[in-house]
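Box 3.1 A note on notation
Throughout this textbook, protein chains are presented in two layers. The first layer is the amino acid sequence; the second is a token string describing backbone geometry. Keep the layers aligned when reading.
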Amino acid sequence: MARHYSIKNLFRQMPNALLAQYFQAQGLFVDLDFTGMKEGAPEALFEAWQALSDTQRNPLEMALRQIFDMSCEKGWLAILDEARWQLGADPQAFTSFSDRLSALSSHYARAMITFLDYRACWKGATRFYHADMLSYWRKRRNLPHQRAAVDAASLRELADLISHYFRHAEGRGRHCVVEPYRRNDLDYFFAFPEDHSQQAAEWVNGDFQPRPHNPAFDIVYVYSQQEGKLDLNYRGGRQAVEPLQGVFARAILKLDELPSDPKDERVYDLSPLRERGFPFVFDPWSGIESVAVKKLRLSSTVRSGDRLTLEADPTRDREAVYALMDRALRKAPGHLYNVTQVELLAVVDVHEDKPARKVTIRITHPNSCSLKYDELGLRLRAMLAASGIEPKDMTEAVEPTLEQAEA
């Protein structure tokens, strides 16, 4: 669930000492008594903030909003991954970093301390967090186990090839920059081509006026040398996927051509889920408390396009959807329908200090799944695999079905 940003809420959640350190480093609010403010009640700070001019406030708010975004479990895990890389040459330094931040009272404090005291870890962590929030990656398999080239010339070549493609295909992408990062055994590449010029209505020093600007759009590559696989996230037309994979193979893997991609024949076996009492299997350490079926879509094997969609609340009755199915199929033999989509309701303990979270998982035949590849998504995919539903290749990403894309 997306978290709603407000500067006042950030001030409430952040320890006063860290707010003082942040603003005093900017040369602001030096006369404000941060120690005298009650924790969680930053009215005096908020009033001082409101009194700033747009020129003073806007750059600071950009940084504070980024700190807010990173003040969560996913942000903390991204920070740890980047710190592990940045401090990897000195294991004691990483242990000291991890111990110091783990002992803090909240993810807000961890994000702010990283921003203030470990700036070398900040940018990469924000990139990883962004990648973790993306869904529907396009996977390319069958690549040679080639080491990724991350030298300046190779990155410039990739940027130039991306620019060349979009300039000729779509009339945008005149400029492009590529940033490489290493995360455990994966190579991440974030490309930022120039988008079409846009005009946005903005407030500038109290005046409301349209302002033209040239935004960037992003393309994210995640390459596994060990598995010979490439993940691509590009929120655009499907026709660009293979060319973007091809330029990566040429510039980063130094291949003359993109190897053929074997068709993915894996499917989710959804048929067992139409039976009452299906046993979902998960380890106690996973944090998963329960899993139940809340929605079934049955497709006719006789008349193409005929479907029944059954949805019930499993909170009180775990088999409510099956009772509904029995009533719906009284006059229609069940063997005339296949299960082509299910929705599961998983209750997961994600944080010891917070209530368990309810997560909806949508699985559509043949191989589409709504789960992301963040920590929570991987835990739930492990549950699907142990239950005999998820294909065993846990790193294989899926693309949305036509119905999901239209939705």
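Confidence is low (pLDDT under 50) at residues 392-407. Residues 152-169 form the longest helix (18 residues).
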